[in-house]
């Protein structure tokens, strides 16, 4: 499986999720993490360590899809950490993927910022209909409810919002700063459980087709169709 985290908006948790999902998958299989962001956050994280639990390769270039597919063939799973902005690189990341997850903070602002990413995924789906795409709620604070704009946008696109949500939790930030995954830094934490739940939900989705329900939009979104 090639799984990418992509959203043109910066700071939504793409690198945090990529590293920790790769770490979760690496507990039972051979995993590659492709750093497709020229900021190199995932590569910087790897450079803090002597050994990484998965291989990390930098590939922040346009038309990276072919190279990504070639190298991914040697691994059971590949996770791609996508860039903010960089449209051309993002296009390559999306086309190389089996599953695209768009991390979104549960507020209206990140919805607008994701519109372009959603458009890119839809464009890719016209040439690769098997490409799956879903939203994953990231950096959720407390009991915030997912904004109606997000539910509407998901319903409009027919993209599910995964049931697993990743909350704003200090150990996520701290672990990356010291070059660890959440499973090394806080193995028994709620944060670690959230990543495990996300990985198992995505695994089931890929294996069994869509058990993840597309959330219903508001009246306004439905009448716009
Ligand atoms: N669930 C979380 N809980 C706490 N802090 C988080 C969480 N997710 C991300 N962060 C912190 O928020 C900041 C941005 O996260 P991250 O780098 O993963 O986002 P990104 O989408 O990859 O950003 P960019 O677009 O710049 O690549 C980092 O400092 C990270 O430690
Ligand atoms: Mg990043």
Automatic annotation (TrEMBL):
InterPro entries: CobQ/CobB/MinD/ParA_Nub-bd_dom, DNA_Partitioning_ATPase, McdA, P-loop_NTPase. This is Cobyrinic acid a,c-diamide synthase. It comes from Rubellimicrobium rubrum. It comes from the Bacteria. PANTHER family: COBQ_COBB_MIND_PARA NUCLEOTIDE BINDING DOMAIN-CONTAINING PROTEIN, P-LOOP CONTAINING NUCLEOSIDE TRIPHOSPHATE HYDROLASE. Signal peptide: none annotated. Residues 4-179 form the CobQ/CobB/MinD/ParA nucleotide binding domain. Pfam families: CbiA.
